[in-house]
Amino acid sequence: METQLERIAKIAKSKPNEKFTSLIHLINKETLIKSHNEMKAKKASGIDEITKELYDNNLLENIESLITRMKRQAYKPQPGKRVYIPKPGTNDKRPLGIPAYEAKLVQSNLAEILNAIYEQDFLECSFGFRPNRGCHDAIKLLDKIVNKPIINYVVDTDIKGFFDNVDHEWMMKFVEHRIDDKNLLRLISRLMKAGIIEDGIKYDTPKGTPQGGVCSPILANIYLHYVLDLWFDKIVRKHCKGRAYMVRYADDSVFCFQYEEDAKRFFEVFIQRLRKFNLEVAEDKTKIIKLNKGNDDNVDKDENSFDFLGFTHYVGKDKNGRKRVKRKTSKKKYRASLLKCKEWIRSNRSIPIKEFMKTIISKIQGHCNYYGITDNGRFVGNFIDECRTLIFRWLNRRSQKRSFDWSKYIIFQKQYPLPKVKTYVNVFELGAGNSYLL
Description:
Elements (H helix, E strand, L loop, with lengths): L1 H13 L14 H10 L13 H6 L1 H13 L8 E7 L6 E6 L2 H18 L7 E2 L7 H12 L6 E6 L3 H4 L2 H8 L6 H11 L3 E3 L2 E3 L12 H24 L4 E6 L2 E6 L2 H17 L10 E4 L14 E4 L2 E7 L5 E7 L1 H18 L4 H19 L5 H19 L10 H10 L23
Parallel strand pairs: 1-5, 3-7
Antiparallel strand pairs: 1-2, 4-8, 4-9, 5-6, 7-8, 10-11, 11-12
Helix pairs in contact: 1-5, 2-5, 8-10, 12-13, 12-14, 13-14
């Protein structure tokens, strides 16, 4: 399949207007078995309660049955299982739709096909769920944009419940720009309309692409590629008096402008643009920010900052006293990370010390790897210090008797040292998307 996908990718890149008419054959016995072998064993099961281990017991028979049903258009994906996970830093919960095992295999194959085609079309300003394009790449590009002397305004946007409100009719129109395989289009439509089961009750899904499905990320990127990326690149930028840029990570987008009038006009048409595609802006999270790069130090820093990908981006001073946009861990993400660590420590303080420390050090290191970015050393250091205190406090509650005082804890820390504060990610290094600035 890799060879066939590579050929499709080359055609898609060299012929931007090409429509692919024969793709469904790429979902076959070999590719489905490959997807099964690559599936993580501990993935949560869907409504069918089938795990990788169970499916593997009669793998060939199961795959043959699935292929037979697909060939005669009799395959209908089972509804997803609705579960909720906490949203970091809030009391809200995020809904997920976990597909049945066969649907996971089919979606995995479908996602590879769609990625091979659309990865050639996606713009350089787009990040998230794309090969070799992570959060840090998006932040590096944003840093270079907002620190351009001519960029003075930022429109920080948020789409209200994006994944739950994707319009299926528009989605199919977008997919049909590149795909004219009726069987594959039917499969995509059925996957989106499979429904959700919650508390034993089935609910139809006339709109949305449930988070949790393997195909949701690529479908979301296709939708926003047409709704936002191309629109901004081909229309909005041409009508701006000054320079204008955007950075998008999945459904989180930041738009940067040279002039205030461009930012204000965009803010108005952005709301109208979303409405056309049955999406709605989250008004409490969408705002225009003026970057105070001048000599006025009396500006409210909270009004002069915005959050993106877990960081608060604000105007500060470098070591030479010059103003530039810097970043720090957002308050919401900081509190959520600390609470998560505290809950884990509290729940696992009775396990063997060696295992306990190995796991908590790994968790803290994970936090450092992501948030240990240029300018954010103080907040990473604060996080490590607070975790150090939490470990001391909870290990002393392992029994009725106090385990050790602080001096003994310092010796203990030498045996199990926590990660050190350092810059794990340098925003000044080149990352994906830099050609967008040319």
